[in-house]
Design goal:
The complex is a heterodimer of chains A (226) and B (260). With 226 residues, chain A is mainly alpha-helical. Helix content of chain A is 68%, strand content 5%. In chain A, strand 1 and strand 2 form a beta hairpin.
Chain lengths: 226, 260
């Protein structure tokens, strides 16, 4: 038995409604729940970051007096008001992220959707599609099927969130979750890994949003289903 | 609105939405309408929650934080040990940190010092420093002090286990909390499981010398399984209770369990 055949069968047996819509309702709800959780976690994470500003960052803020550089992540980009508030938001949104991710994993396994949606994937294929995208030759006729760049990007985002969760576990519970501390090469490195993975996720979100705006029907599909 | 009403409302709303959705989804036109309503509803809830109703969102955040206390209590394992490090990794100088500057650290007179005991403890007689110094089973451990503010440093703290002392004074070990009152106005409380953890110490020494004023003389409760703010310094009184005692930072919004 191959991994593909039951998946194709499952698609063929899917109810009419689901075949008509690009993304099933559960997926759309989960996408937006995930977006909400990720945005809340990033903004509250910035608030937590500001308690030390351990990378000595400055961020641009546009004020009445023009562009000003604020120490750390500027207050207006953060959530929680102070460290304690940021932590409260972070560990509230954590539940949305975790519950959503667990449900996504379960439904993906039950519906056998994940493998046909994200595989096969190959490095030459990614470069071919990337070239096509940059020269404006990439087809968006059927947005139900992800191109190789999309597949790679979405898998990257998922893997990156896994890294965020593991390094987050190391920071939150370095004693109880010793496995997480080991995976991040000790307690202090976890802080840098967590921050870097956050920055990479921000980069993904920017590219993701720009791409969606360039092909607006993908936004419609992610909201209404088609 | 009563405290218990919100979850029920949300639950019944959820059920109603799901029931309605089931009917609406069959017709494409209704589907679109449903989508519009969902978006509008979502937006108004989001803005309503974020802008209009700061108090109710704070109530939710506080409640989730208390829920997370419970989760951390479940995650906490008596068998888990905070890692210990070689002495060569000790940070020197070790960072001073408090809600005041180092010059304002309280000076406690060791010759007249008496540790007070209260709450569910059988023998509430107070203890002098020489009596405390004579407690059995003293150890010294090099552990990482993790601050909630995003830094950590390694230090060495030594003294008897808090569990040894609690058993000696006849503390009711079935109680939920052990609390501490400090000379600088700080106060903290921890769960009984952590109080009985073998790495939780009454730290009379820092780097094998009497703990200096700025690190918490005459002693600090050293808990390497918890964040720094859960490690009270200049302890003047220990009490055992079943009534949630909170803490200095906890009452301002830090998570109570604060475990690592």
């Amino acid at each position: 038995m191959t991994a593909d055949s039951p998946a194709i069968e499952a698609t063929a047996r899917a109810p009419v409604d689901d075949r008509k819509s690009v993304h099933p309702l559960w997926l759309r709800l989960m996408h937006w729940a995930n977006a909400l959780a990720v945005i809340l976690m990033i903004m509250s994470g910035w608030q937590i970051y500001d308690a030390t500003n351990f990378l000595h960052l400055s961020t641009p803020v546009w004020t009445d007096h023009g562009l000003v550089w604020a120490t750390g992540i500027a207050r207006r980009y953060t959530l929680g008001g102070w460290l304690g508030g940021g932590i409260q938001w972070h560990f509230m949104a954590m539940w949305i992220l975790v519950i959503n991710a667990v449900l996504y994993a379960v439904i993906s396994i039950v519906t056998r959707r994940f493998v046909p949606q994200f595989l096969p994937l190959s490095i030459p294929g990614i470069f071919k599609d990337l070239k096509a995208a940059l020269t404006g030759h990439l087809s968006h006729a059927d947005i139900r099927h992800y191109n190789y760049v999309q597949k790679a990007a979405y898998l990257f985002a998922m893997a990156d969130i896994v890294v965020l969760v593991i390094s987050g576990c190391a920071l939150w519970k370095s004693v109880q979750f010793a496995w997480a501390r080991v995976l991040t090469f000790g307690y202090e490195p976890a802080r840098y890994i967590h921050f870097t993975a956050m920055a990479l996720l921000c980069a993904f979100i920017i590219v993701h949003v720009v791409m969606a705006l360039l092909v607006p029907k993908t936004i419609r599909a992610m909201i209404w289903g088609k | 609105m009563s405290d218990r009403k919100i979850p029920d409302d949300i639950k019944s709303d959820q059920n109603a939405i799901l029931r309605e959705a089931g009917g609406l989804l069959k017709d494409p036109a209704k589907r679109r309408l449903f989508g519009n309503i969902l978006t509008l509803g979502g937006l108004s809830i989001a803005t309503g929650v974020l802008i209009k109703d700061r108090n109710s969102i704070q109530t939710i955040l506080d409640r989730v934080s208390r829920f997370n206390d419970g989760v951390q209590g479940v995650i906490f394992s008596e068998a888990s040990r905070a890692p210990v490090y070689p002495k060569s990794m000790i940070n020197n100088p070790f960072r001073f940190n408090a809600f005041y500057s180092v010059a304002q650290a309280p000076v406690v007179d060791g010759s007249t010092y008496k540790l007070m005991l209260s709450g569910k403890i059988r023998d509430k007689r107070s203890w002098t420093l020489p009596q405390l110094y004579a407690l059995p089973g003293q150890i010294s451990e090099v552990t990482r002090h993790i601050c909630v503010e995003g830094w950590s440093e390694i230090g060495e703290w030594g003294g008897p286990r808090l569990s040894t002392f609690l058993k000696m004074i006849g503390a009711d070990l079935t109680c939920k909390y052990v609390g501490f009152k400090c000379a600088d106005g700080y106060y903290e409380s921890i769960d009984m499981a952590t109080a009985l953890h073998p790495q939780t110490l009454m730290a009379f020494t820092f780097r094998e010398h009497t703990i200096p004023t700025w690190y918490g003389y005459p002693f600090k409760i050293r808990i390497p399984t918890k964040l720094g703010y859960k490690n009270p310094k200049h302890v003047m009184e220990i009490f055992v209770t079943d009534d949630f005692p909170g803490g200095y930072w906890v009452d301002k919004g830090y998570n109570w369990f604060g475990g690592s």
